[in-house]
Amino acid sequence: MSTTKKNKFTEGKIISSLLSLALPIIFANILQSAYQLIDTFWLGRLGADAVAAVSLSFPLLFLVLSIGSGLTLAGTVMVARYQGANNQKMVDFSSSQSVFLIFLTSIVLAIVSYFAAEPLMTIIGAGPDIIDDSITYFKVSSLGFVFLFIFFIFQSLMRGIGKVMLPVYIVLFTVILNAGLDPLFIYGYGPIPGYGVAGAAVSSVITQAIAATIGLVILFRGRQGIKVSLASMYFNMENLRKTFRIGFPASIEQSTRALGMTFMMVIVTSFGSDIVAAYGIGARMLSFIVVPALGLGIATTSLVGQNIGALKIKRAENVAKLSAKVAFFGFTGLGVIMFLVAEPLTAFFIPDDPMVIKEGALFIKIMSASFGFLGLQQVMNGTFNGAGFTKASMFISILGLWVVRFPLAYILSNTLAMGPVGIWWSFPISNLIAGTAAFIYFKTGYWKKRVIRDRSFLTAHE
Fold it and tell me: Mean per-residue pLDDT for 59-74?
C-alpha cells in the first residue's frame, strides 16, 4: 500500500529543488566524461594515431551503450513517479525489475560487441595505421559493458528518488582510481606490461567493475530509499510493457544520436588521421557542454516525473520553464568561455601537432555559439521524458542529427568542397534547429494533455 510522507521535490521553491538535483548530476556526469579525457591525455603522449584509434571507437561504444540506455531512463521515470505518489512498494519492485532487465541486456550486448569489433571498425573506415588498436580497444571495452550498465541503472534509480549525491562519491572515487591505473596499464610498470591503447580500456573496465559492485551492495541492502530483491527479478509482463513504452523511444533516440556520431566519423575519416584526431579532441570538448546539459535534462526528468506522480501538473510545467532559462543562458555563457580558450585546450591534449591544434580549435570555436540551444533541447527532452512522452525526444533528436546535421555535414564538406570546416558548421546549425523545434513543441502543451489522459500509470497492481 502507499504511504504518506513529505517530498521536498514536489513542494517548496522549484529553483532549490532543481539545483539540488541538477548540480550533483552534472558533477557526476562531468566526472564520468573524465574517463575519456584522462584516456585522451595519456594516449596523446603516444601520438595522434593513439588518440585517433580511441576517437574512432568511441561512437561505436556509445551506440552499443545507447541501445540499453532507454531501460535506465525508464527506470528513472518509473521510480520518480512512484516516489512522487509515495508508493514505496512499487519503487522497490520497479527498481528490481530494472536491474534484472539491464543485467540481461548488458550480457547480450557485451557478447555481440566483442565479436563484432573487427567488422565494425572495417565498416567505419579505420585506416591501416589505427585499425588494430581500434579493434583491441573496442574488444576490451566491451568486456566491461555488464559493469557499466549495472552502475548506470543504479545511478538512474538513485536519481529517480532524488538521492543524487551517492553516485557522485562513487564516480569520484573511480575516476581518481582510473587516473592512476591509466599510465600503469598504458605504459607498464614493474611486472605489469604496457598495453598501449588497450591499457586505457583495461583500467576503465577495472574501475567500472568496482563501481558496479558498490552499487549492487547499496541496492540490495536497501538503506538508501530503494531495496531490490532477487524474488522480484523475473519477467513481469505489465512492467515490461511500461518499460518498453517509455524505454524503447529513448533507446531509439540515443541510438540515432550514436549512429549520427558513427556516420559523422565516416565523413571525418575521409580527411585523414589528423582531422580524426582534431574531431576527437573537439568532440571531447563538446562533451564538457553536452554532459552538464544532459545532467540538467536528467534532473528535469526526475523533478517533472515526481511532480506528475503527485499529480502537480502546473508545478511540473514551471519546472520545465525554469530549467529552460537556466539551460539557454547558462550554456550560452559557457560557449563564450569555450570560444576564448579553444586553442590552449586543444594544445593541452596534443601539444606537438600544430595541424591538429589548429583544426581542433576551429571546430570548438564554430560550435560554441550554439551551446545555449543545445542546452535548451536537452532540458525540453528531459521534460518530455519525465512526462513519459519519450517519443517527442526521439523525433527531435532524429530531426537534429539525421535530417539536419549528417546530411548538411556531407553537403558542406564534399558537395560544396568546404572540407572539414563544413563538418564543423553542421553542429551549430543542427543545434539551433533542434533546440528551437523542441521549445516550440513544448509551448504547444501537448505533453500535458498526454499526462492528464495517462494516469493509469499510478494505478499499478500491488
Answer: 80
Task: Read off the DSSP letter of residue 441.
Answer: H
C-alpha cell at 262: 558513427
Picking from 80, 89, 6, the residue whose alpha carbon sits closest to that of residue 299 is: 80
The torsion angles phi and psi of 234, rounded to 5 degrees, stand at -155, 175
- 56 vs 187, more confident: 187
Measured CA to CA, the distance from residue 137 to residue 122 in angstroms comes to 14
3-state secondary structure of 123: helix
- d(CA 159, CA 164) in angstroms, rounded, equals 5
Nearest of 307, 292, 332, 448 to residue 14 by alpha carbon: 307
Low-confidence winner among 100-104, 308-312, 363-367, 424-428 (lowest mean pLDDT): 308-312
| DSSP line for 234-262 | S--HHHHHHHHHHHHHHHHHHHHHHHHHH
Sign of CA dihedral 425, 430, 435, 440: positive
**Nearest alpha-carbon partner for 223 in 168, 267, 161:** 161
What is the mean predicted confidence (pLDDT) over 377-397? 92
Asked if 55 contacts 279 with a C-beta cutoff of 8 angstroms, the reply is: yes
How many Å apart are CA 148 and CA 61, to the nearest integer?
A: 12
Residue of 254, 250, 290 whose CA lies nearest to 65 = 254
pLDDT on residue 459: 46
What pLDDT, in 10s, does the model give residues 214-225? 999 999 999 999
How far apart, in whole angstroms, are the C-alpha atoms of residue 318 and residue 321? 5
DSSP string over 124-168: HT--TTTHHHHHHHHHHHHTTHHHHHHHHHHHHHHHHTT--HHHH
What's the pLDDT at 254? 80
Q: Are 419 and 357 in contact (CB under 8 A)?
A: no
Residue 85's contacts (CB-CB under 8 Å, 6 or more residues apart) are 2, 309, 310, 458
Helix axes of 420-444 and 354-368: crossing angle, nearest 10 degrees: 20
Q: In angstroms, how far is CA 301 from the centroid of its own chain?
A: 14
Question: In the chain, what are the domain boundaries?
Answer: 15-455
Extract the C-alpha cell encoding 324: 529552460
- In sequence order, the 6+-apart residues with CB closer than 8 A to the CB of 45 are none
φ, ψ for residue 419, nearest 5 deg: 70, -155
Tell me how far apart the alpha carbons of residues 418 and 58 are, in angstroms, rounded to a whole number.
Answer: 25
The SS3 assignment for 458 reads helix
